[in-house]
């Protein structure tokens, strides 16, 4: 009976370690930018492996905004400074328009230029509100002092 209990404890410890390693891998894997599409002051970034938490998404933007500007020239603000950047999960690749709720990109010269709409993060700059971050059903604003507050 004693050996059976030790085996069960060992099994649960091993299973717990496997789950913990998998969760850490999910949490620390790097975001992969697949493509960037631009139309006027609207930018779409297609990604794989995007972050889960609101804080993680906002931190990713703050950490990478200069690199995104240098590499992809986004955002491209209007004359008054307004812009919108939406991060989309790029799960199954580009598709034809066919389905009801797909986003298509006019900068691609092919019929296979659409994605299923699965936005996970939006960054906006407006004249009245400044920079805001929309994550699921929450909106955050970057204050002038750099502090991020939930609205």
In brief:
The chain is an alpha+beta fold and 151 residues long. It has helices spanning 2-28, 54-72; strands at 32-39, 42-48, 83-89, 95-96, 102-104, 112-116, 119-126, 130-135, 138-142, 148-150.
Structure description:
The protein has 151 residues and is of the alpha+beta class. Helix content is 30%, strand content 36%. The protein has two domains: 1-30; 31-150, no CATH class. It contains two helices and ten strands. The termini are far apart.
Number of helices: 2
Q: How much β-strand is present in the residues?
A: 35-45%
The mean pLDDT is 87
Largest sheet: spatial strand order: 1-2-3-7-8-9-10
Radius of gyration: 20 Å
Rounded to the nearest angstrom, the distance between the terminal CA atoms is: 58 Å
Write the element-wise H/E pattern from the N-terminal end onward. Answer: HEEHEEEEEEEE
The low-pLDDT segments are: none
Fold topology:
Blueprint: H1 2-28, E1 32-39, E2 42-48, H2 54-72, E3 83-89, E4 95-96, E5 102-104, E6 112-116, E7 119-126, E8 130-135, E9 138-142, E10 148-150
Parallel strand pairs: 2-3
Antiparallel strand pairs: 1-2, 3-7, 4-6, 5-6, 7-8, 8-9, 9-10
List keywords for this structure.
151 residues; alpha+beta; three-stranded antiparallel β-sheet; 2 helices
């Amino acid at each position: 009976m004693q050996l059976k209990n030790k085996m069960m404890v060992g099994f649960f410890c091993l299973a717990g370690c496997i789950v913990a390693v998998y969760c850490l891998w999910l949490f620390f894997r790097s975001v992969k930018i697949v493509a960037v599409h631009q139309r006027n002051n609207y930018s779409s970034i297609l990604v794989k492996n995007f972050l889960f938490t609101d804080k993680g998404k906002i931190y990713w933007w703050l950490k990478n905004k200069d690199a995104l500007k240098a590499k992809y020239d986004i955002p491209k603000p209007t004359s008054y400074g307004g812009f919108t950047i939406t991060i989309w999960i790029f799960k199954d690749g580009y598709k034809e328009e066919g389905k009801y709720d797909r986003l298509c990109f006019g900068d691609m010269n092919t019929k296979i230029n659409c994605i299923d709409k699965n936005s996970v993060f939006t960054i906006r700059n407006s004249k009245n509100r400044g920079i805001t971050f929309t994550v699921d059903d929450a909106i955050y604003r970057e204050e002038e002092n750099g502090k991020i507050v939930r609205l």
